[in-house]
Design a protein that fits this description.
With 237 residues, this protein is of the alpha/beta class. 65% of the residues lie in helices and 16% in strands. Strand 2 and strand 3 form a beta hairpin.
């Protein structure tokens, strides 16, 4: 943009001096107004665009807030569902444990009945003339020989029998369990000792379907014989 003197000199070519001065100032002022107006319009446009973007951003933030709220609700529902699932699984595990215990008891009772009915056959040639005794009748004859608590424990033996081993009459104390463990051995040892305390030659037997080598070794160490799968295992060498 030319300066006022430059514009004035150009205007002097066709106008008097006063008019040239006035017109030079008018041109400069008009130019400044036009520039300022253009800048203002440009600024207005930028502000308008910025306002639109701010509005879009506000909507996006609102949508994000709604999405976060929905996500929080979904997470809450998922947590509740997970808790219900965990509760259901825990109930199923508890029910399964109860069923396994009942099945184990049922298997145990079936094994007891099997042992009582087939004990003479299970004992083979080592013990002959085996006869399973009625426990209640047998124990009643021991009331003067053993304390009441020992008698009560002896009554819970799975089977008590008499047999001949060579020329000797022996009493057999039998504990039956699907899988023999230390508890079965403890009962057999304790109740066999009660029979011995009452004055009988007593031999403890654990009848089972399965027994670990370690449990078998402990049984032999305590003089407890083992019947497994219907076969009387030999004594330790």
């Amino acid at each position: 943009m030319a300066s006022i003197p430059q514009i004035r000199n150009r205007l002097l070519e066709g106008f008097p001096e006063k008019q040239a001065d006035l017109l030079a100032h008018v041109v400069i002022e008009a130019h400044d107004d036009l520039v300022n107006q253009a800048d203002f319009h440009a600024l207005t446009g930028v502000v308008g665009e910025l306002a639109g973007k701010v509005s879009d951003l506000a909507e996006a933030q609102k949508d994000l807030a709604e999405a976060q709220k929905d996500l929080a609700e979904a997470q809450k529902d998922l947590t509740e569902a997970q808790k219900r699932t965990e509760g259901t699984v825990a109930d199923l595990v508890t029910t399964q444990k109860k069923m396994l215990i009942r099945l184990d008891r049922l298997d145990g009772h079936m094994l007891e009945d099997k042992v009582s009915k087939n004990l003479p056959a299970f004992l083979g040639r080592e013990f002959r003339r085996c006869r399973v005794l009625e426990r209640a009748e047998f124990v009643e004859g021991l009331e003067d020989r053993l304390p009441e608590d020992v008698l009560a424990d002896l009554m819970r033996a799975d089977a008590i029998a008499t047999a001949k081993r060579g020329d000797q009459v022996v009493h057999l104390l039998v504990e039956a369990s699907c899988t023999a463990d230390s508890d079965d051995l403890d009962r057999a040892v304790r109740r066999t000792a009660a029979l011995a305390q009452a004055g009988f030659t007593a031999i403890g037997i654990v009848a089972c379907e399965m027994i670990s080598p370690r449990t078998l070794a402990v049984a032999r160490r305590h003089g407890i014989r083992v019947i497994t799968d219907g076969y009387l295992l030999p004594e330790a060498a």
